[in-house]
Design goal:
- By secondary structure, this protein is α/β, with parallel strands linked by helices.
- The protein has a domain of about 110 residues: 3-Layer(aba) Sandwich (Rossmann fold).
- The protein contains 7 helices and 10 strands.
- Strands 6-7-8-3-9-10 form a 6-stranded mixed beta sheet, sandwiched between helices. Strands 2-1-4-5 form a 4-stranded antiparallel beta sheet, covered by helices on one side.
- A hairpin with a 6-residue loop joins strand 1 and strand 2.
- Helix 3 packs across helix 4.
- It starts with a strand and ends with a helix.
- The structure holds adenosine-5'-triphosphate.
- Adenosine-5'-triphosphate binds next to strand 2 and helix 1.
- It comes from Kosakonia calanthes.
Length: about 260
């Protein structure tokens, strides 16, 4: 199958002081259409930089970044991004936050509003469309961000530690919500986290990165199936071994980073 997203021999050095900083060196990776891939790796190894490259915010010094077989030239609605902070406009209602992008593109207001209400219902925010962001909890704000990212029907969603600031209970609910929306839409997801359990629950495949300059040092395809459940996954016969292995690998790379 043709890769939906690909980095081919990508290198990137930032012009930093006192010396340039090589963040990625000759890194390659590929995601199939509809795949859910999680990136794990030490702080500063270049995970967000990879998302920024795929989003089109940054360009590589060498190598290629491809989406749907074409070189990524600039950001576009087919590649959405969700950050740790929901970044909502405080002066706009929930509905206006969700519809902001499509309305800028002069899409029909009634049609966009109907789709936005549909997404707000899916993320459990029916009845909150006229609330202001300050009237919402952190988890509710991140639900708005999910609805906003999914509204334009992106082919790819890039998620940069989207649940990192949430409490454990809310995080679990958001993970389940994300999986449901992903299974329904078949969007290709590239998700960055530091949380190994989160990676195990969410991913089809985990990519472990080395310390900077970041490379993929291990790839683990999870055997849990797509129809998994947060309450039963830990009972899978391979869960403990895989968790231990991934934890060990991630800690090893983090130690290398510090030594
Ligand atoms: N635009 C930039 N200019 C200069 N340096 C940058 C720029 N963007 C990122 N960096 C540096 O590149 C390195 C990699 O950053 P990146 O955010 O990709 O790491 P990360 O793996 O996502 O880290 P974390 O897990 O801590 O979020 C860091 O040292 C960062 O300071």
């Amino acid at each position: 199958m043709t890769a939906h997203i690909a980095l081919e021999k990508v290198s990137l050095t930032f012009a930093a002081k006192p010396q340039p900083l090589t963040v990625l060196q000759n890194i390659s990776l590929a995601l199939s259409p509809g795949e859910f891939v999680v990136l794990l790796g030490p702080s500063g190894c270049g995970k967000s930089t990879i998302l920024n490259l795929v989003a089109g915010f940054t360009k590589p010094d060498s190598g290629q970044v491809l989406a749907g077989g074409k070189a990524v030239q600039q950001p576009g609605p087919s590649r959405g991004m969700i950050f740790q902070q929901p970044n909502l406009f405080p002066w706009l209602s929930v509905l206006d936050n969700v519809t902001f992008g499509p309305r800028l593109g002069k899409h029909l207001k009634d049609e966009v509003n109907a789709q936005a209400l549909d997404w707000l219902t899916r993320v459990g925010l029916k009845g909150f469309e006229h609330h202001a962001p300050w009237q919402l909890s952190g988890g509710m704000k991140q639900r708005v961000a999910l609805a906003r990212a999914w509204l334009p029907g992106p082919d790819v969603l890039l998620l940069d530690e989207p649940f990192g600031a949430l409490d454990a209970q809310t995080r679990l609910m958001m993970q389940e919500l994300l999986r449901e929306a992903w299974l329904e839409t078949r969007t290709t997801l590239l998700f960055v986290t530091h949380d190994v359990e989160e990676a195990l629950f969410l991913a089809d495949r985990i990519l472990v990165m080395s310390a900077r300059p970041g490379k993929i040092v291990e790839e683990i395809t999870l055997p849990f199936g797509r129809d998994r459940d947060i309450e039963t996954i830990a009972g899978h016969p391979q869960y403990s071994d895989i968790k231990q292995h991934v934890l060990h690998r991630v800690r090893l790379e983090a130690k290398r980073h510090l030594s």
